[in-house]
TrEMBL record:
This is Oxysterol-binding protein. It comes from Cettia cetti. PROSITE patterns: OSBP. The keyword Hydrolase does not apply. One of its GO terms (biological process) is lipid transport. GO terms for cellular component: cytosol; perinuclear endoplasmic reticulum; plasma membrane. Residues 1-13 have a biased composition (Low complexity).
Length: 470
């Protein structure tokens, strides 16, 4: 998220750069609801039907090379490099964070379980699902402007969400979400540190994520795995997640340790996640395995160890694609799971915790967005009157990119960055400090570490003192 900045390298003028032609989508691949911005369709049950396609398809990146930009910037801090807009996707990083909520049904499951082990299993699945939307998403979200916000209320899914860009250097995004039934609170702050390794770009996660299950008086905290983009010099860009994620239940002392495995020399470990849940006495309660790009399963430790021993002995353990019938026999809640096949080596007796959502058939021409992501920048009729003037949906460079107006989007992006630079210089001249609007610096009550906490009041909709950033 640190590529865009108010400190441009000055080596690349986006507005004057030639943009490739639009990929051709047939009439059948246009907006399938027939409804564009401001015309959200209402279903018979009264629930809004969100759009299923973007107004315009993505532009081809085949004529561009990330390396052509980065080779001029070796040794520079990546947060101070401006990248051409063609490498972006038409979402702000604040909207990208909101994609945590795509699998909110897992939070609902955690709230409904009486058994703390089952709650931890659901929370672990939610933590893994939060990074699943990044699969094949090599487009870079827009770096939020200082003071930028994003809100999302989904009555059909039972939550509302607010985020704010609270710092520009370093870039820090704070968020807060709550269940409409007052059953959970989900909040945190994210400020990834970017490293350029020549052939890859690594985003090291920083910041604590907290989930509170109010009914059970429980709080869980964790940090995301490291994300790495490969082949920035030559070849097809691809993503991997790696590192150890520890999810702590601060009420019971239970802990879930998940190892997002690196690809390895021959790619055998690609996308694999493996770990376990242990109680406060460090006794293993269950083993979790799967892939963050596909699905997650759990089984008891004895079954897992027996299976692994047989595998090492050369026993015939075949990789099987798990059909819907397999899922139904192992999981009573299979109706919530989409019908997709996976490559995870299934251990008999395992319980399915989560499976990735199917993407729209035209996803490859929509920046590989999920159905949830497609709806995030939708500007429904009447929204402008109630949104904060700092909301991402009102940001002109993202809006123009979404509509396929790449030249205008590039010029607007440069204009906004210049406006941000000028505002920063003016504050420095007058010795005026920037004040955040909806979040404040504090201490995470469960980890004791520095965090950004929600100040409250956003949904009172008093936006009179919001900054003019667009």
């Amino acid at each position: 998220t640190g590529f865009d900045s108010d400190n441009s390298s000055g080596d690349f003028s986006e507005a004057n750069h030639k943009v490739p032609e639009v990929l051709d989508l047939g009439p059948h691949e246009s907006n399938r609801t027939g409804k564009h911005n401001g015309e959200t369709e209402i279903q018979e049950n009264g629930i809004k039907r969100h759009r299923t396609s973007l107004p315009a398809p993505m532009f081809s990146r085949s004529d561009f090379s990330v390396w052509s930009i980065l080779k001029k910037c070796i040794g520079l801090e990546l947060s101070k490099i401006t990248m051409p807009i063609v490498f972006n996707e038409p979402l702000s990083f604040l909207q990208r964070i909101t994609e945590y909520m795509e699998h909110i049904y897992l939070i609902n499951k955690a709230c409904s379980h009486a058994d703390p082990l089952e709650r931890m299993q659901a929370v672990a699945a939610f933590a893994v699902s939060a990074v699943a939307s990044q699969w094949e998403r090599t487009g870079k979200p827009f770096n939020p402007l200082l003071g930028e916000t994003y809100e999302l209320t989904r009555e059909d899914l039972g939550f509302r969400f607010i985020s704010e860009q609270v710092s520009h250097h370093p870039p820090i995004s704070a968020f807060y979400s709550e269940g409409l039934n007052k059953d959970f609170i989900f909040h945190g702050s994210i400020y990834p540190k970017l490293k350029f390794w020549g052939k890859s770009i690594e985003a090291e996660p920083r910041g604590t994520i907290t989930l509170e299950l109010l009914k059970h008086n429980e709080a869980y905290t964790w940090t995301n795995p490291t994300c790495c983009v490969h082949n920035v010099i030559i070849g097809k860009l691809w993503l991997e997640q790696y590192g150890v994620v520890e999810i702590v239940n601060h009420s019971t002392g239970d802990k879930c340790v998940l190892n997002f495995k690196p690809c390895g020399l021959f790619g055998k470990e690609l996308h694999r996640v493996e770990g376990y849940i242990q109680d406060k006495h460090r006794k293993k309660l269950c083993v979790i395995y799967g892939k963050w790009t596909e699905c997650l399963w759990c089984t008891d430790p004895t079954t897992y160890e027996t299976y692994k021993k047989n595998e090492k002995r050369g026993g015939e353990q075949k990789k099987k694609s798990v059909s819907e019938d397999d899922i139904k026999s192992e999981n009573d809640e299979a109706d919530d799971m989409p019908e997709v096949q996976d490559t995870v080596q299934f251990i008999p007796g395992s319980k399915l915790l989560w499976r990735i959502n199917c993407r729209p058939p035209n996803s490859s021409q929509m920046y590989n967005f999920t159905s949830f992501a497609v709806s995030l920048n939708e500007l429904e009729k009447g929204m402008e009157a109630i949104l904060a003037p700092t909301d991402c949906r009102l940001r002109p460079d993202i809006r123009n990119m979404e509509n396929g107006n790449m030249d205008v989007a590039s010029k607007e992006k440069e204009r906004l960055e210049e406006k941000q630079r000028a505002a920063r210089k003016e504050r420095a001249k007058d010795e005026v400090e920037w004040h955040t609007r909806w979040f404040h610096q504090g201490t995470n009550p469960y980890t004791g570490t520095p965090d950004w906490l929600y100040s409250g009041g956003y949904f009172d909709r008093n936006f009179s003192d919001c900054p003019d950033i667009y």
